[in-house]
Specification:
This protein is an alpha/beta fold and about 325 residues long. The protein contains eleven helices and ten strands. The protein has helices at about 1-20, 35-50, 65-70, 80-90, 145-155, 170-180, 195-200, 215-225, 260-275, 275-280, 305-315; strands spanning about 25-30, 55-60, 75-80, 105-120, 135, 165, 185-190, 205, 230, 245-255. Helix 5 (about 145-155) runs antiparallel to helix 8, helix 6 runs parallel beside helix 7 (about 195-200) and helix 9 crosses helix 11. The chain starts with a helix and ends in a 7-residue tail after the last helix.
Length: about 325
């Protein structure tokens, strides 16, 4: 009897251990200081507190490595620009010849306006003023930025040939070079901790507005079809936005690998959808996350079945916009 009881207890312990281990998942982000890393850290904390999931944040030097990990089954989730996901699925740009067919969207997190940043005392007030100025280029560890910068310049009828390109690796390196005076402008999404750091170090920065016109929109979408233009209002937590500022915008999405279990994806989506207040309290830019747009449809990409199950049960599939 004692042996049977011991065996039963061992079996129970193994079952519980397996259940806990099944809820240990990873989420790929960019390096600390980026919007993706901050979002991933907050999402992991909320998932842990509400679903008991042990989510490990995995910083990466670039989106290519991050998505490759998800596509290959080495990471469960990741946060990225939906335009980059589309390029990866279709085998475009740096993905040419090697499409990442195992990527699935889980949730549309929020629109992320981005743009070129200059110091307040630079005398640069528009993209046209950047002609001949030093801008980061190449982005060897973060090739996604090439299309972002190209789109911002295209909105004003410019290309990288109109500026003085300075090779860089990634976002943080370019930001540091900008603060050190080796660049006249740099690129970043709004709301990132690194943007606030640049603002403090330089005594004030500002995002350069793009024209909010049909022609500018067409030029932007010629670079990437899921880009659009939004006007960002000045808010206390948004360094560099001192007045209503039109910026090129993209949707940040949460990804999962096709082989991630449906129940794991379902639980992750539930933790985000049902705890919006906790997300916003930890990171105010999550205020732009709208429940009714979480299942927003995008060109080419497919949603993970675990996510679709939650949205159908919640009555928000397909998204209303």
């Amino acid at each position: 009897m004692r042996m049977k009881l011991l065996a039963a207890l061992c079996a129970a312990m193994i079952a519980v251990s397996g259940s806990v281990m099944a809820q240990t998942v990873s989420i790929g982000t960019l390096n600390q200081g980026s919007v993706f890393h901050t979002m991933g850290s907050v999402i992991s904390r909320v998932a842990r507190d509400t679903e008991g999931m042990n989510v490990v944040v995995q910083p990466n030097g670039g989106t290519f490595v991050m998505m490759s990990a998800v596509d290959g089954g080495f990471s469960d989730f990741a946060i990225n620009d939906v335009n980059d996901v589309i390029a990866a699925l279709e085998g475009l740009d740096e993905h040419e010849g090697s499409p990442m067919e195992n990527l699935r969207v889980v949730l549309t997190i929020a629109p992320l306006p981005m743009g070129l940043i200059v110091s307040d005392d630079s005398g640069i007030t528009s993209a046209e003023d950047l002609r001949g100025q030093r801008l980061p280029s190449g982005w060897s560890a973060f090739p996604l930025a090439n299309s972002h910068v190209e789109a911002v310049l295209a909105a004003s009828g410019m290309t990288m040939e109109d500026v003085d390109p300075v090779p860089t690796t990634g976002l943080i390196r370019a930001a540091d070079d900008f603060v050190a005076g080796r660049l006249d402008a740099t690129y970043f999404a709004i709301g990132a901790p690194k943007v606030a750091e640049m603002n403090a170090a330089l005594g004030g920065i500002r995002y350069l507005p793009v024209p909010d016109t049909p022609a500018a929109l067409a030029a932007v979408q010629a670079v990437r079809p899921a880009f659009y233009i939004t006007t960002v209002p000045p808010l206390d937590h948004l360094a560099g936005i001192n007045e209503p500022t039109p910026l090129v915008t993209w949707d940040a999405v949460l990804l999962a690998g096709a082989d991630v279990p449906d129940d794991t994806v379902y639980a992750m989506v539930r933790s985000i959808m049902e705890n919006r207040d906790a997300l916003v309290a930890a990171y105010p830019p999550f205020n732009s996350f709208r429940l009714e747009a979480a299942a927003r449809q995008h060109p080419v990409v497919a949603y993970h079945p675990g996510a679709v199950r939650y949205y159908q049960e919640a009555g928000v599939w397909p998204a209303s916009e």
